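Hi,

Apologies if this is the wrong queue. I'm a grad student, and the batch job for Helix-turn-helix transcriptional regulator from Micromonospora humida produced an output file that my downstream script rejects. I'm not sure whether the problem is my script or the file. Here is the sequence I used:
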Amino acid sequence: MRPSGRRPAVDCSRRPRRSGYPWRTRPVPCRIGGGGVGGDDLPVGRRVARWRVRRRMSQQVFADRLGKSKSWVDKVERGVRTLDRYSVIQEIAEVLGVDPALLLGTRLPSSGQIAELDGVDGLRAALARYDHTAAVVPSAVLERHVAHAWLTYQHGHYAQVVRALPGLLDATSSRHATAPGGAAELLVQTYRITSAVLVKLGEADLGWLAADRAVAVAGDDPALAGTAAVAVGQALRALGRGRLALAVTVTAARRVAPRPVRDAPAARQALCGTLLLQAALAAAEHGDLRRADELIDLAAGIAARVGAGDDPHHCGFGPVAVELARMVAAIEVGDAGEAVHRHEQVVRRDGWRLLPAEYRAAGLVDAARAYLQVGDLFGAGRVLIEADGIAPAEVRCRPVARTVIAELARGRPTVAGVARLATLVGLTPR
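Support response: The file is valid. Your script probably expects a header line. Output copied below for reference.
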């Protein structure tokens, strides 16, 4: 029964009839509520400029504190460059000493509210627990549950993954304590899923912790360490630590498939290619387009050899993944027109619909960012609504997607379907 006087929760999962897990935890729907789009109609860049002046900072001082160039700040404030990543908005808000909602003109939930509503506190508690007391589950059973967790994540059912992970972490950790060699891969994969979903939900610090745990468990095994490094790279990028992410992923790629790469098994090559793509995106995020292009070209060569076959490391690597990386790299360096062009090309490829739902929806959210940067609100709204149809949680639970929704909802004319999405995620007018 819906409580009177309260906005209905948004359930970001499509819950199956049976979870398939032997342990049960309290169901926690991934609900995100909040205030709304409204107040003044100033663009985000103008709000940034207003608060910078209030803090008596020059553009150069502000740029230095952000680790950006004065030109970057100037473009943001003039609206030439769109702020469409929530992590960047959070970093700016921290330097200015304001709530990110003041820059967005929205009442987005704080990380504490997100934790309370989507079950992140349960994951935080699980990661803080060192005395694992779960009964030792046979490896074959755990393998099935880890595989099920990956499948659930790839279908974009993040709330269900969050509910299952505390018990799965306990079970895989207990198994690893009794049989370290045989259970290391299961524990690394569980930490990877944990890190991935936390980064999605805007909890990158906690995601970095889970990824670091995966690295520790992987030890000297190059393949396991490589899969863990994928998670580290994603978390560091989400934290705005592009240079660190670049160093970690390039080093891991060299360990996974020493030169000549073509002599390594196909699965190792695909993992190496995934790490190179992560490194390329990290390079693009701190403005090194030449390095990003070089790394993506290396990954493209690997993808041409191995294709998009078996995926034992759960990387989703292949020619389409390479093209999506080119699109995201173009967004990061401010070439939104190129990003839109690459998006329109990649969705026509045969391999596009073979990607996991989570991967496709994430690519569409990135495409929406590109359309927004070139001022095509209708294009941004169209791909965002398409993403919502593929994996609703990717749009309704991710801060970066909600930032795009907020920008679109503020635009005029309002894009059909965006107003409904804004209401669903709690971005209603003040």
